[in-house]
Amino acid sequence: MPEMPEVEGLARFLRERTVGRALEAVEVGAISALKTFAPAPAELVGRQIFDVARHGKWLDVVTTGDGEPLHLVFHLARAGWLRWYEEVPRTAVRPGRSPIALRVRLDDGAGFDLTEAGTRKRLAVHVVPRPEAVEAVATLGVEPAELTVDRLRELLAARNQQVKGLLRDQSVIAGIGNAYSDEILHAARISPFALTRSFDEETVARLHRAVEEVLRSAVEQASGKPAAELKDSKRRSMRVHGRTGQPCPVCGDTVREVSFADSSLQYCPTCQTEGKILADRRMSKLLR
């Protein structure tokens, strides 16, 4: 799933190429992806792109025209992506016949498709007068760039929970998902299952520093890259996430994994859990 650094990279990529252009066509390829019906996507046609913004993991194409602005707000979910064209194919999008959920064509011939692979369709597209009309956007937590040490301390103390879950909770901190929470906790040398109310001042400061450094580095790496290169760039930058069985780049220990029903996390026992191997949650359930 694209997380804040990749979505920020996509926002910058689109901003450079689309601001000032008019929308020539908007074609829906997957009705299931369209979460709003009024205004209709067709009402975006003829409007000019004013900006491309990011809210957590959501992208927001801001358009102007007659009356109030209209926002094309979308979330790529786990298997979605944005495919950019310097020249959009002229063939019509055939609903149900391809992975294309939405196609946007600009007045200079360029544009993009929103695509989604697999059978579990979660990509979400909204056409709204303001981004906060999307509940998931309205309820987003603090952006990482605005997260102070004091604010992080408050969030950790609000409820005693595993820190991995807190970092991934979009209503608490916007934009961090499974991959970067693994990377942040590895950089901070904290177990993913550590309880948030157990953190002392030094641990809070260490976690805050890791959030800043990991995400800043990832955003810098994503910035300026074509959309087609962002996924591979993210994979190459990971130290522990997605690297089960490989050596930790810090200490050389073997990166371990904990599997859940539909996801997994990776960590280094030496760096994060004082050498303790965490139980695989799927196997633990089977043994009960």
Automatic annotation (TrEMBL):
<dbReference type="Pfam" id="PF01149">
    <property type="entry name" value="Fapy_DNA_glyco"/>
</dbReference>
<keyword id="KW-0863">Zinc-finger</keyword>
<keyword id="KW-0234">DNA repair</keyword>
<keyword id="KW-0511">Multifunctional enzyme</keyword>
<dbReference type="InterPro" id="IPR012319">
    <property type="entry name" value="FPG_cat"/>
</dbReference>
<keyword id="KW-0456">Lyase</keyword>
<feature type="domain" description="Formamidopyrimidine-DNA glycosylase catalytic">
    <location>
        <begin position="2"/>
        <end position="123"/>
    </location>
</feature>
<keyword id="KW-0238">DNA-binding</keyword>
<protein>
    <submittedName>
        <fullName>Fpg/Nei family DNA glycosylase</fullName>
    </submittedName>
</protein>
<keyword id="KW-0378">Hydrolase</keyword>
<feature type="compositionally biased region" description="Basic residues">
    <location>
        <begin position="233"/>
        <end position="242"/>
    </location>
</feature>
<keyword id="KW-0326">Glycosidase</keyword>
<feature type="domain" description="FPG-type">
    <location>
        <begin position="239"/>
        <end position="273"/>
    </location>
</feature>
<keyword id="KW-0862">Zinc</keyword>
<feature type="region of interest" description="Disordered">
    <location>
        <begin position="223"/>
        <end position="245"/>
    </location>
</feature>
<dbReference type="InterPro" id="IPR015886">
    <property type="entry name" value="H2TH_FPG"/>
</dbReference>
<dbReference type="Pfam" id="PF06831">
    <property type="entry name" value="H2TH"/>
</dbReference>
<dbReference type="InterPro" id="IPR010979">
    <property type="entry name" value="Ribosomal_uS13-like_H2TH"/>
</dbReference>
<dbReference type="InterPro" id="IPR035937">
    <property type="entry name" value="FPG_N"/>
</dbReference>
<dbReference type="InterPro" id="IPR010663">
    <property type="entry name" value="Znf_FPG/IleRS"/>
</dbReference>
<keyword id="KW-0479">Metal-binding</keyword>
<comment type="similarity">
    <text>Belongs to the FPG family.</text>
</comment>
<dbReference type="InterPro" id="IPR000214">
    <property type="entry name" value="Znf_DNA_glyclase/AP_lyase"/>
</dbReference>
<keyword id="KW-0227">DNA damage</keyword>
<dbReference type="Pfam" id="PF06827">
    <property type="entry name" value="zf-FPG_IleRS"/>
</dbReference>
